[in-house]
Write a structure and sequence with these properties.
This protein is an all-alpha fold. It is built from 22 helices and no strands.
Length: 516
Amino acid sequence: MIRSFLTVSTGTLTSRLLGFARDAMIAALLGAGPVADAFLAAFQLVNVIRRLLSEGALNASLVPAWLRERETAGAAAAAALAGRVLGTLSAALIVVAALIGVLMPLVMTALAPGFAGLTTLQLAVDDARLMLPYLAFAGPATVLLALSSARGHFALTAFSPLLFNVALISVMAALFVWRQDASRAALAMASTVGIAGLLQLSILAIGHGTGIATPLRVAFDASMRGFIAKAIPGMAASAGPQLLIVAGAIIASGSPSAVSWLYFANRLVELPLGIVGVAMGTVLVPEMTRALRGSDVRAVANAESRALELATGLALPATLGLMVLSAPIVRLLFEHGAFTALDTTATAQALMWLALALPAHVLVKSLSPAFFAREDTLAPLAAMLTGLAVALALAVVLGHFFGATGIAASIAAGAWSNAASLIRRGAASFGFAIDDAARRRLPRIAAAALVMGALLWLAVNFIPAPMHGIAQTVVLALLIAGAMACYGLLLSLFGVTGWRETVNALRPAKPGDLRA
């Protein structure tokens, strides 16, 4: 499982790094004013729907169903199921995209009520309508990605999303050369989103060849209705972090630039969340489904334990690092062109609070597959809705008094409410199988992360006044590299892992070994 996890994580990391380049260019082109607020509100709408489908979410329903069909009825039946899902989802998304396009003024007013009566609303409507064709391509692309995961082919799943960012970056580079005004630049970027979706689907279709989802047809029979009934709650539950941000943006839309500040802060949180969360959803669900179908209690415990160790080991140091380095990271990545020093300060303050949500998000991502593998998608959905309600209620109050910072704190509270609800439901339903090794390692991982965070905080205090240019890049890179080296050393000193264990985890595993 470790090698598969690292394959998906590497692709996700590469995509997220390109995403940072994309967002830095968006900040430089649009700044953090009305045009940026409109574009980012529209982009969030499409992005949330994309993530409802992708980033491991559809695995929650399609992978267990596809594996069960292949084991009980054979490869042809599994291909027929995939063909029905592919055709039905594609047709449904075309209809949904057209309907949203017609109702877009109402949709954007609901998602950003603070835009009502302003030119920002019309800008957001225009941008969102240009982005909608992406949804027609997202459906079939998501099904093909899920089928790759079910068959244990993770490389295509990991690296195909890169095309989305490559397309946007290429267009924005051209916009810098042509020096278009912000409004025209936003429209050009919105138009590129649909093209990026077509590129991604084309690569996946070529990579899969023929026969994986045949015959292709639209069906709403009893079996498909049952699949959809399980799929929708699972996809909604998997998109919890994005829905929390949307909830925050709804409240923030009444404050100038607040939507942009929250968006850029959240993008930094999504780097570690994507590396861990996407890999968990993509790799862990198939592993746990196979273990449960084989009634292999030891394999289930091993999968859950290693997933929790990986999640904790990556999320805790990332959280502390983002909190300590919030201002220099935001300054380096986004303070260019139209993005000002004031925007940096506001974004960094929001980031410090959003970073507190990261361990909760990752905990949910590592625990949800235990429900999904048992084909229970309602419990994670209920936990997510509880967290969403908490976030909205707090955002109304804290947003009024503290602005974007208060909304960010509300999102963190909602994330922890989601995680707590999921833990309670899991413990009551089936209990989480954590082995002795995990019980021994987890406290040591937490201790190593805390020591690293304290040392990083001390190091930051010795840095002179805010720097710019190459100097800030070098200093920040040294701080991050030093913190990573320190954390690795502490893990070794605390007996969590060593060089030999790491090398063994990365070696090709024998068939049936969960390290594969």
